[in-house]
Structure formats: structure tokens, C-alpha cells
Amino acid sequence: MTLNQAFKALSDPTRRKILDLLKERDLTAGEIADHFQMTKPSISHHLNLLKQAQLVWDDRQGQHIIYSLNTTVFQDLLKWVLHFSSGKE
């Protein structure tokens, strides 16, 4: 994961909404798509960008892929942001 990938993924409101949904519980792509008025391939594109940024994990369970948050990356992002308020190099 690079910070650039993470910030690019976070820059889109649809992807932020997906992250908000996953904050509540793990979901399949279909369950995520039910919250949006867009095509499933569009949702898949957003999920792929979130996966590339390592903000979400995917786990195949039978015919379904379950998506969940990768909180480690959020901790890394927060650490990077807090670096500026601490005044340390």
C-alpha cells in the first residue's frame, strides 16, 4: 500500500460510503451494491480500487466474496497524519 493509493481511494464519495457500510459489518459485493443506484460492475471497480489500496480485504466463502475493513491501513494513515501535529521528523 502506498499513501497515494489510499488517498486516491478515499477521495471518492462512493468508496467512502462503502467503507462506512463495512464499518458496521462485513458484506458481500451484492449487499454493498444494494445501497447504490449503479451497476454491479461499477461497484466492483470501486471495490477493486479499495482492495488495491489495501483498505479492504476480500475472502471467498463458497460462491460469495465477503469484504471487510483492513483497519491496519487506517492506523497507518492516522499515524502519518498525526506525524504533522507532533512536530517530529
TrEMBL record:
Domain HTH arsR-type: 1-89
Tagged with keyword Cell wall biogenesis/degradation: no
Superkingdom of origin: Bacteria
Keywords annotated in UniProt: DNA-binding, Transcription, Transcription regulation
Database matches in InterPro entries: ArsR-like_HTH, HTH_ArsR_DNA-bd_dom, HTH_MetalResp_TranReg, SdpR-like_repress, WH-like_DNA-bd_sf, WH_DNA-bd_sf
Alphabetized Pfam families for the sequence: HTH_5
UniProt-listed NCBIfam families: HTH_metalloreg (NF033788), repress_SdpR (NF033789)
Protein name: Autorepressor SdpR family transcription factor
